[in-house]
Amino acid sequence: MTAERYVFPHKHLLGIEPLDARDITAILDQAQAFEAVCERADIKIVPALRKKLVVNLFFENSTRTRNSFEIAEKRLSAEIVNFDADTSSLAKGETLIDTALNLEAMHPDLIVMRHSAPGAHALLARHMKASIVNAGDGAHEHPTQALLDAYTLRQRFGRLEGLRVAVVGDIRHSRVVRSNLWLLTKMGARVTLVGPPTLLPDEIRATWPEVAISNALDPVLPEQDAVMILRIQFERGTGAYIPGQGEYIRHYQLNAGRLARCKPEVAVMHPGPINRGVEITSEVADGPNSLILRQVTNGVPVRMAVLYLLCHPHGEQVP
Description:
11 helices, 4-stranded parallel β-sheet, Rossmann fold, single chain, 5-stranded parallel β-sheet
């Protein structure tokens, strides 16, 4: 009797919340296969998305995510259109839905979008036949960041279940932390959120009651396998929630002194961009415990896996 073949059951990747542990594992396993492609010495391209059209719609600034998706698409041999919101008809008052319907008329297969409005991707998915990939929507979710974080942790420790992970910083405004909370709790990791009370909203406590909460960083550090530092998002108004930058640094910055309180093998992570000297020092960000650049590297095979599985849910053999 043969085992039932797994079929990826999702048309879109709107967030981590709709995924179950099997879906997450399928993406991470597929990313591992694509990592071998990315590590080749010569040809780093496979024809897995040949003749597929991918539109990149970025309404917010992005460096790592946008470039990572574009590299992933090129390595899968996709045809790519980069949509510039600043020079499009959106600048003339066109609605997102009208923009989507006009793009739909061009028959794209996949749309990768970043937007400042939470839920914008779900709105797009209701009006388009193309698969929608959420590259960040407001303070809601950033699913591919959580997936690459999980991939990096699994690569480092060989597992996710049972890992102790502290997430430190601007919890209130972070879409990264929400996707990571969905993913890490589904995969059996033990998460502790750390930050000032003003940056730990009640909504977080209500949605993830199993997650530990701490307003003090130092007592939490010795038991963690990984410490994920979040950027202070001053552009989203975080400055109004903390007494001052100096006070935040004194209580929550990950520096050499605090790193010495951790396990010797602790993994230091950050989704970027980094405010060096604020939430983390350069000594720690560039030190031997840091997996920050490894996260960036892993973003490409993880995003390749997402794009591939949305187009090939049956997991056909990669040519």
